[in-house]
Amino acid sequence: MRDRLRSARRWVVKVGSSLLTADGKGLDHAIIEQWTTQIAALLADNRQVVLVSSGSIAEGVARLKLPKRPTRVHELQAAAAVGQMGLIRAYEAGFERYDQLTAQILLTHDDLADRRRYLNARATLSTLLTHGVLPIVNENDTVTTDEIKLGDNDTLGAQVANLIDADVLVLLTDQNGLFDKDPRSNPDAQLLERANASDPNILALAGPPGSSIGSGGMRTKILAAERAAQNGTTTVIANGREPNVLLRLRDGEPLGTMLTSDQKPLDARKRWLADHLRAKGTVTLDEGACRVLKEKGSSLLAVGVRACSGEFSRGELVSCIDKEGREVARGLTNYSAADTRKILGQSSDQFVQLLGYSGEPELVHRDNMIVFR
Ligand SMILES: Nc1ncnc2c1ncn2[C@@H]1O[C@H](COP(=O)(O)OP(=O)(O)O)[C@@H](O)[C@H]1O
Ligand SMILES: N[C@@H](CCC(=O)OP(=O)(O)O)C(=O)O
């Protein structure tokens, strides 16, 4: 299994805030130097790497001499803007030692939710990789509001992995990997060497972040691994302080936790849909509709819809839930929320009479939908 990493050509390496900084003390330049050395060696070994690095807020807090991480959004955004300068400066200096060019990419959820911008980001990243440049990605914290925030860089790492069809996503953190319980509060916790990224039981192992500076904890790492697995990408969660961790992983050493899935990878368009985090509205399906979506891969017909909430237009993303509120599928709707309310529970031969026009027979076509386990 670990051989997969030996042959992995495209790598996304995500470095968490908890690693980059000791609580509130700014960047740990010594450790940044170690990663730049390792990444430069991976690049020299004919691998392509995209680095997703957190740390802007932590560094901003230190530079602004704030007593602790602020809670107000604008304070956090100001800290991110200040800190991002230090972060990029540290990486650029580190990679200059190896004559390695770097590029800064700041992304928001909105950039990735818009198909055209998503494809643009994809093309730019590929072009940079073709030129042998190392892209360094972070969330564009200064412009994000809660609505458009990705929220944590584990998710961003998985999205970048999907964008560039990475072979491997390495999530470097301050623990040796995923344990059967949070090792900070449970000294007897056992490290899992392997796990199935789409096993719903592993999410229950994950506790909250380990420090006041980290966000998401293991939960977002497992969800990121699941997201990456939808594209056939292997994820490894490992300790960024382990000497030569990236090179030893490349050599097939069993460090950290490897998360893979036997799921069939989604095609490119469906993957984009799966990565599209926020739905504009929700439709509640009856049992029959849930069953045919899951078992037969059918399109969603209005006749199987019991309720509709939220405001959306034709072509926007809706979440399809069962009567217990579990998300069964998500997809791009052929009808606006107003029209969906008029046709729900009805068969398509009634649409002309109810709407005054005859649109597609499906509310969500199966080509524009992903169905969850
Ligand atoms: N089952 C678990 N195994 C390992 N770590 C866990 C687990 N549950 C919670 N954690 C916590 O998750 C923390 C890592 O997440 P986080 O603080 O968000 O780091 P990062 O900044 O690297 O993303 C660890 O320090 C650990 O305390
Ligand atoms: N964009 C933020 C990232 C916050 C974040 O996701 O942190 P982490 O979960 O520790 O990787 C920053 O640079 O501070």
Architecture blueprint of SSEs:
Blueprint: H1 3-7, E1 10-15, H2 17-20, H3 29-44, E2 48-53, H4 56-63, H5 73-96, E3 102-107, H6 109-113, H7 115-130, E4 134-139, H8 153-163, E5 168-173, E6 194-196, H9 217-229, E7 234-239, H10 245-250, E8 257-260, H11 268-275, E9 281-285, H12 287-296, E10 305-310, E11 317-321, E12 327-332, H13 337-343, H14 351-355, E13 369-371
Helix pairs in contact: 3-5, 4-5, 8-9
The protein binds adenosine-5'-diphosphate and the ligand N[C@@H](CCC(=O)OP(=O)(O)O)C(=O)O.
Tell me what the structure shows:
Substrate binds at residues 54, 141, 153. This protein is an alpha/beta fold and 373 residues long. It has 2 domains: 3-270, 3-Layer(aba) Sandwich (Carbamate kinase); 279-371, Archaeosine Trna-guanine Transglycosylase, Chain: A, domain 4 (Roll). It has 14 helices and 13 strands. Helix 3 (29-44) packs across helix 5 (73-96), helix 4 (56-63) packs across helix 5 and helix 8 packs parallel to helix 9. It starts with a helix and ends with a strand. The mean pLDDT is 90. The structure holds adenosine-5'-diphosphate (ADP) and the ligand N[C@@H](CCC(=O)OP(=O)(O)O)C(=O)O. Adenosine-5'-diphosphate is lined by residues 16-19, 173-175, 178-179, 181-184, 205-207, 209-211, 214-218.
